[in-house]
Sequence to fold (177 residues):
Amino acid sequence: MATIEKRTAEDGTLTYRVKVRIKGYPSATATFPRLTDAKRWAAQTETAIRERRFFHTREAQRHTVRDLIERYRREVLPTKAPGTQKRQQTNLKWWLAEIGDTPLAEVTPALIVEQREKLLRRDGRRGKTADPASVRHALVVLSHAFQVAMREWGWVEDNPLTRVKKPEVPRGRVRFL
Fold:
């Protein structure tokens, strides 16, 4: 059930505060300058809460990629092999530097593709370009972090990296015995 309060500021401007309260769920509030916007938000929010879509997005807006990576480093990385930990730490540092302050709700496949292309153009050691396998590893690490955040922590509704194409890796050597 939504309630709308009309509020007058000291300078005389009107605002409308909306509270949506449904039994069994936390309440949601927002403030709007126009009554029509307030009514529209109330209706959309009630529907989203009933369909269990609203609070997932709130959780995704509350946390950043930095929060995701730091918790992943604390809880998931120690369970992996030391060599894997070292390589994944490097990849996670890069993601942290590039998109660390981005809220999880704003991480889209388009943003990831932009970063993937940046990684592919990046100069590696001694002036060489980064190889597709390294880029693929970086994408896989971030994808796993999003999977854990989705399945175990409930921070995001879906993994945006599932819709991002990973670069093809050359077949490598073929050896015959």
